[in-house]
Amino acid sequence: MMRIFYAVAIGLLCFFSCADEDPINLEKVLAGGSTSVFAEFSNAFQFPAANLSPIELQNHRRGDVAFESSFVTAPSQINAGLGPIFNQNSCVSCHGKNGRSPFPDSENDLLGLLFRVSIPGINIHGGPKPVPGFGGQLQTKAVFGKKSEVSVKMNFIEIPGSFSDGEAYSLRKPIFNFDNAYIPLPGDVMISPRIAPPVFGLGLLEAISVEDILKHADPIDLDKDGISGKPNYCWDELSQSLQLGRFGWKAGQPNLLQQTAAAYLDDIGVTSPLFFEESSKHQIQYDGGMDDPEINNELLSLTTFYTQSLAVPVARNQDDPEVLSGSKIFDKIACGKCHVRNFKTGTHREFAFLSNQHILAFTDLLLHDMGDSLSDHRPEFEAQGNEWRTPPLWGIGLTKIVNGHSNFLHDGRARNFQEAILWHGGEANQSVLNYKNLSKKERTALLKFLNSL
Amino acid sequence: MKYLKSIFVLLSIFNFISCSKDSIKPAVDYSDVLSNSTNQVIINTYKDLNDKSKLLLIAIDQLKSNTSTGNLELARLAWRNSRIPWEQSEGFLFGPVDQQGIDPSIDSWPVNVVDLDAVMASPDVLNKTYVDALEGTLKGFHTIEYLLFGENGNKQLAEFNTRQFEYLSACTQSLNGSTQQLFDAWRTEGQNFGKNLIEAGKVSSIYPSQKSALQELVDGMITIADEVANGKINDPFVQSDILKEESRFSANSKADFADNIRSIKNIYLGSLDGSGSIAGFYTLLHQSKVSLHQKIVNQIEAAIAAIESIPGTFTTAITLNRPAIQFSQDQVRALQLTLESELKPFIDTF
């Protein structure tokens, strides 16, 4: 019954146009293809894909409950398994309203900011080498009676700059320090701050074929355009092989199941059949593992499905002249070389609603050199310290409405779109230079375009 | 938890893109409705929450200093009273309550009983600063509820000890801090989040248009109807699992659900006393939608009445009065459907 309803609605969309107006180009609006929803309010990232079947909708809802569930210390009759060390006690604690975490304004509550760690060398799969006693991530909270791995201290440096027209700007660089470590951190530890990104539209990114992603790859810049596009190949637990990375700030996760299981483990301290050993194993705070895995395959699958089946909000004001102008500037200064607008998803092996969708994600899912200023100096599989995966830009203009802030980049340092642009370096140096040479009017148009996504 | 929402949101795309040039419509100013919703409903609800939370602290400190059955019952009553404005605020769970991370400090569930027991057994000094630093699952309404009413809702005075009274007081002081933060975040004299609704469409607001601010309000109503019908009632009911019931310790679930529906009523009518304000949300329906207006009012009242008519507690009704729960769930779903399929599409045409 619902399917019919959708079909009718989509049919109306396809055929309707106002007689006395230019028809709207749907391809410029429906950023998530048939999954798209129109929402310009705070729940914009919380809708199920518009083309789910009734059964899929039911599973989405069950996944929603799991995504919102707060875990508590075991044993408990409900939601047991928190910690013993963790960053937050639920998925939504970091991904509020399924959106982007703000940069924390207090060291006492880091919100969706966490720190990946490793020491020089690689693990048996070619990934980051865990820090003895700390693993691959610093857990900054602990259940009662245990000790968080570290406390975080933040300081900031303001870096002044100016545009070609003389207008001044300032960039905020965060400096993180760590104390109260439960055991001393080794001197050669490499630390990478990461902010929680939005989680909508991820199923569509997962549904893009490897071949289509690799079409944009140019790791040694054979076409000499200054833009590389390097695939990361990371360890896939299920297939026990290296696979193309798609998720995470360095494309260090190959699929959403593994991304979800890793987040349960490292962020919440909840073990699953995929990662059934506590993050604290081999540490003095290990809880003994008597209750592992703490969630079953069904719950892990439901939470994963929730992130696969969230709708993408439509782009807005695409016929506004200033937005159109900004869109042209976006291309002119080569933002779109990495923030690739269009993809058509392939055939998803499980879910038809994700298949063959024309999407406007503004990412190539590849790694790019972003320069020393953004480098975390910590390799992750094939990603070097200065290399980051192009993040999608869809829905980015709704961040303020949904999450109440405009903090961007991998650690949330940028306080607005403009600062995010200006922090780009490496392969994006020329684009940033071009941006700085734009007139105020042109810069404003580009920012307005970003705000329309 | 958006069961039916996707269909109607998809339809709203149709409204959104089909005739996008507003110039064909006369400009209408909705600032009176947005201002009334903000000042008369939202901010006043948060003020009430803050006031009741302070009264709860007075009652708990009274119980702490003079332990008696009478004072225990007064503290429990004060908890129920403070719960009312909180539940009546859940029709507008946007803005600071979410964006400033306040919700987990007020309404986290479930209670982390293992850690709570460990805190009680520890030598730690229990004060507001201490509780402020704890996870949400160790503070807020449900932790206070657990300590006041007990696991089975029949906690006796003899089961309390000094540490529990200290923790109750510290926990309620922390709750006061959160309700004050929330109130201050909205009101004009504070961070003035309310201006985002009132000044929607201006550069001073996060909402690009008055329409998007109105959509925020109507979506808030739909979201809580969905949450009550398909989450709060549905999960313990369908799974016959009382552990999934949120206010089980106090047997306050029916009141919680009814007050959630009243949060819809308050926004819709534009007042906290059940009378329709001259600038209530319902006035947007004008005379052309009189029947829809009456339908919404009737469905709100029917949902509240059905919930309050469930015999006994919600916990016992899960086993003994399932048809009554089913009926109340149906009533809330009917309201949700109307809000989603009729009210929201109408606002989308603005």
Blueprint (SSEs and pairs):
The complex is a heterodimer of chains A (453) and B (350).
Chain A: H1 2-15, H2 54-68, E1 85-86, H3 91-94, E2 113-122, E3 128-129, E4 137-138, E5 141-142, E6 151-162, E7 168-179, E8 190-195, H4 202-206, H5 210-214, E9 233-236, E10 241-244, H6 256-268, H7 297-308, H8 321-332, E11 342-344, E12 358-360, E13 367-369, E14 387-389, H9 399-403, H10 417-423, H11 429-437, H12 440-452
Antiparallel strand pairs in A: 1-5, 2-3, 2-4, 2-8, 6-7, 9-10, 11-12, 13-14
Chain B: H1 5-18, H2 31-65, H3 69-87, H4 96-99, H5 103-107, H6 113-121, H7 128-132, H8 141-149, H9 162-186, H10 194-198, H11 210-238, H12 253-269, H13 290-308, H14 314-320, H15 322-348
Helix pairs in contact in B: 1-15, 2-3, 2-9, 3-8, 3-12, 8-9, 11-12, 11-15, 12-13, 13-15
Low-pLDDT regions of chain A = 1-22
Q: Greatest interface and its residue counts?
A: A-B, 64 and 58 residues
What is the number of helical segments of chain B per DSSP (H or I, 4+ residues)?
15
Protein structure class of chain B:
mainly alpha
Strand segment count of chain B? 0
If you average the pLDDT of chain A, what whole number results?
Answer: 93
Query: Percent of residues of chain A in beta strands?
Result: 15-25%
The radius of gyration of chain A is 22 Å
Silhouette of chain B: globular
Report the biggest beta sheet of chain A as strand number plus sense, adding barrel if it closes: 4 strands, antiparallel
- Through-space gap between termini of chain A: 32 Å
Rg of chain B, please? 21 Å
Secondary-structure element sequence of chain A? HHEHEEEEEEEHHEEHHHEEEEHHHH
If you average the pLDDT of chain B, what whole number results? 93
Main sheet characteristics of chain B = none
Number of helices of chain A: 12
Helicity level of chain B, as a percent range?
Answer: 55-70%
Number of strands of chain A: 14
Shape annotation of chain A: globular
Uncertain parts of chain B = 1-12, 14-23
